[in-house]
Amino acid sequence: MKATGKLLNTAYKSLIKPRSQWDTLSSAFATVVSILSSQSDRDKFVDTVNKGVINPTILGQADMGFFITLALHHDLNNDLFKRNGFSIEEFMQGAEPALENFQEVLYSLDRQILPDFVKKLDTVTETMNDETKIDVGDVTDVKNGALGTLETLQNMEKIVKEQCDWKKEAKEHPDSLYGQLYAMVSEQLLEACRLQFVSSVMNCYFNQIPRIAYTLDSGEIQSIALLSARAHEVIPENNEEEEDEEVKKMQQDPDVMVDVSLTPGIEKKYPIAAQIEVLYSIAQKFQKQSLVPVQIDHAKDDAPLEDKDDGAKDSTGTGTDDDKEFTLQTTWVAIFEGILNDGTDNAHSLRWKLIDNR
Length: 358
Hints:
This protein is an alpha+beta fold and 358 residues long. It is 44% helix and 18% strand.
């Protein structure tokens, strides 16, 4: 699959460009024409809805929901899906446990690396308090330099880089939680998850606000619906440049007289990529958790023992505000991508990657 090394990518490195409104309207119009002119197409549409593959109730709640519903039917009948033996029913059956597993691994990794990350922050904060005499409780704006010295900010940046190189950890330890997550998602989504973890922890830590801690094995998908399913050939981005270069050479050579319009094209096989977008709702259990930063208050050193604040800190470097569990239900849009056909005659095992979860 060397041909997929350089691809026509979007800003978030997808194999297939995002759908425009014109694409949606065009596909919807094609569906209208087909179901009005063919009884078999009308039967297919009704059958797809009855099977639950297309859920008009959910799709109808979105902007242009009616057109998205019609466009989805058109896209599901793409010949590229049919020729490569793709079954959307089988995909949807596998998507639910895959998304549950993604959420479980992500939150498990969060729980695993949080204590060490907080301890690193404690160390830098303690040093900062000794050097700058700044009360951590007054720190509210890291960006504007309220942490004190430039050296402190540099130490923070160093900790973030050293502590959270998820890709490096995943490659060195493929069986770890880092490795499991890396096997599921694209590099861009892995980096997005890392940045979300870092920003969430640092925001809660320096502003001293509770952070929610996930209860392991508590996630359960409540509902899942298909939003879009598209398949396209993936052409290497340097392909057209190479062809243009060959044409220029031929035109510049005085010994070569060729009508380019009559030049027979070379039939090439390109990889076939699929992009599936789903909407899912998941219920998970959490607890409130305090990330208790080290605060240096020498006035308390001589205070009576009963007046000293123990910080409710445990061996992990974190504490809890409230032991009561609560259930939180959230809704996400997930985008999967995979190669249906690698453009060769070799046997190819379809493997999906999660490229976005928002």
